[in-house]
């Protein structure tokens, strides 16, 4: 940048060069400001300038008698540098501070380098994090916090790092204390209501299945719904037990509770996928297909496959205490869940697994909708059972059991608080939605109107359950 001679580049760069003796007996203190640049610290220094504290350990480890200390303050908005791909946080004052001592790299310091980034009251919903630029991370470099400790304060944030490089203070979107407590209250109350309606829904499905003589596809559908609602009931129960007992249990008991919660969540996802498979078999593949002990085989997959996943995750010690923190690093809740050391397990078994299920259900929903519209266009539907009602059934199943969980992928970013409220409310009320949906869908007015759709194909009458 200095050799280019471009005024636009030089406008965003301010540098301080110091020659410091190897036999220094005091720590080196430097101030930096986005507007005034770096300078040696004066004892009468006042204002909102940041401070750099270089320990004596740095200079005593060098071989030469005199070393050059270079402190560079960069305005990355003017320079167009240090841009991370898909970056959600914002750099404080667009300021990056680079520190170099001597000609080699310095890392692994026992007495860390301390940087204090001065700032006023931070906007609500943002949490500060001390980071440095790591060129080898990602495709074109990214921010990293390895080796740095963040200590937030009222007038500034102190960063203690064990190496020298380019540092900054990243303001990441996060929940404040009041929002987090409100979300926990909504989730707890919603789970209690959802459990009650889940019991009503299971009782209703069992009553309808036993009271009326449905055809086999309808009975299979009702059995699927019972198992799905049962998984939701267990998930809500596990969450209530988790929020009530975590933080006061033995580490081993917390690990078991975390594994149980993960198992219930995976069961819910798996039964959602099986509902999508049932739609595919009924409306896309073959209508009226018969599989021996079909529901029993679905139960083996729906309840058995999560056991294998949780067993493997538990074998590597993935479960334990997980804390939820606010912007000021105050712990508001302890949960028995996947620990922070095994976040890869969470990304693969939860985010990745549900992502595949969501894409599959979305594809099935699109195909079913297209098929229903084509049937309506050909006039192949008899009676009042219109194809749009079949599409409505699929849309209700897809939205209630897929779209609400998919909102979790939108909870990263500046607007994550609003999406979190929507995600928490919709999933907490999921049991109520399913209960109303099934009552409207399956409650028969007459024996002939038992929830089946009849239409003629190739001069044959085929019955497909809703």
TrEMBL record:
Organism: Peucedramus taeniatus
Record-given protein name: AGRG3 protein
Residue ranges of domain G-protein coupled receptors family 2 profile in the record: 187-442
Domain of life, source organism: Eukaryota
Compartments where located: Cell membrane
GO cellular component terms, semicolon-separated: plasma membrane
Pfam families: 7tm_2, GPS
Gene symbol of the encoding locus: Adgrg3
Keywords, comma-separated and alphabetical: Cell membrane, Disulfide bond, G-protein coupled receptor, Glycoprotein, Membrane, Receptor, Signal, Transducer, Transmembrane, Transmembrane helix
Molecular function terms, GO-annotated: G protein-coupled receptor activity
Broad class of the protein's primary localization: membrane
GO biological process, one term: adenylate cyclase-activating G protein-coupled receptor signaling pathway
Membrane topology, from the record: Multi-pass membrane protein
InterPro entries: GAIN_B (IPR057244), GAIN_dom_sf (IPR046338), GPCR_2-like_7TM (IPR017981), GPCR_2_secretin-like (IPR000832), GPR1/GPR3/GPR5 (IPR003910), GPS (IPR000203)
Record Gene3D superfamilies: 2.60.220.50, Rhodopsin 7-helix transmembrane proteins
Chain ranges of the GAIN-B domain: 30-177
Residues that span the membrane, as ranges: 182-210, 222-240, 260-283, 295-316, 347-369, 390-412, 418-443
């Amino acid at each position: 940048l200095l050799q280019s001679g471009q005024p636009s580049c030089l406008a965003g760069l301010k540098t301080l060069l110091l020659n410091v003796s190897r036999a220094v007996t005091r720590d080196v203190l430097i101030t930096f400001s986005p507007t005034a640049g770096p300078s040696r610290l004066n004892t009468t220094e006042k204002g909102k300038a940041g401070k750099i504290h270089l320990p004596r350990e740095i200079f005593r480890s060098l071989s030469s008698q005199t070393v050059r200390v270079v402190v560079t303050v960069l305005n990355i908005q003017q320079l167009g540098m240090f841009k991370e791909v898909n970056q959600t946080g914002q750099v404080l004052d667009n300021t990056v501070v680079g520190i170099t001592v001597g000609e080699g790299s310095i890392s692994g310091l026992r007495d860390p380098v301390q940087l204090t980034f001065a700032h006023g009251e931070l906007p609500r919903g943002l949490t500060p994090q001390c980071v440095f630029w790591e060129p080898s991370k990602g495709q074109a470099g990214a921010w990293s916090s390895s080796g740095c400790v963040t200590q937030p304060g009222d007038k500034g944030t102190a960063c203690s790092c064990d190496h020298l490089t380019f540092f900054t203070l990243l303001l990441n979107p996060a929940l404040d204390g009041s929002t987090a407590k409100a979300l926990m209250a909504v989730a707890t109350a919603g789970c209690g209501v959802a459990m009650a309606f889940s019991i009503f829904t299971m009782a209703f499905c069992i009553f309808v299945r036993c009271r009326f003589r449905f055809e086999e596809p309808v009975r299979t559908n009702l059995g699927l719904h019972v198992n799905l609602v049962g998984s939701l009931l267990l998930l809500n129960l596990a969450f209530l037990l988790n929020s009530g007992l975590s933080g006061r249990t033995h580490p081993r008991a917390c690990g078991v509770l975390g594994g149980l919660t993960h198992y219930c969540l995976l069961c819910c996802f798996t039964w959602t996928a099986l509902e999508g498979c049932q739609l595919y078999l009924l409306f896309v593949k073959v209508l009226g297909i018969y599989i021996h002990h079909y529901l029993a085989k679905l139960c083996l997959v729906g309840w058995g496959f999560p056991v294998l996943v949780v067993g493997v995750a538990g074998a590597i010690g993935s479960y334990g205490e997980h804390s939820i923190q606010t912007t000021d690093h105050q712990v508001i809740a302890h949960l028995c869940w996947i620990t922070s050391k095994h976040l890869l397990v969470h990304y693969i078994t939860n985010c990745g697994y549900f992502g595949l299920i969501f894409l599959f259900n979305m594809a099935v929903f699109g195909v079913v909708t297209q098929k229903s519209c084509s049937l309506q266009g050909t006039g192949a539907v008899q009676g009042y059972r219109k194809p749009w009602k079949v599409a409505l059934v699929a849309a209700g199943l897809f939205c209630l059991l897929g779209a609400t969980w998919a909102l979790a992928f939108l909870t990263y970013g500046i607007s994550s608080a609003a999406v979190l409220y929507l995600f928490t409310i919709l999933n907490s009320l999921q049991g109520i939605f399913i209960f109303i949906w099934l009552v409207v869908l399956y409650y028969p007015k007459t024996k002939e109107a038992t929830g089946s759709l009849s239409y003629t194909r190739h001069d044959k009458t085929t019955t497909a359950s809703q």
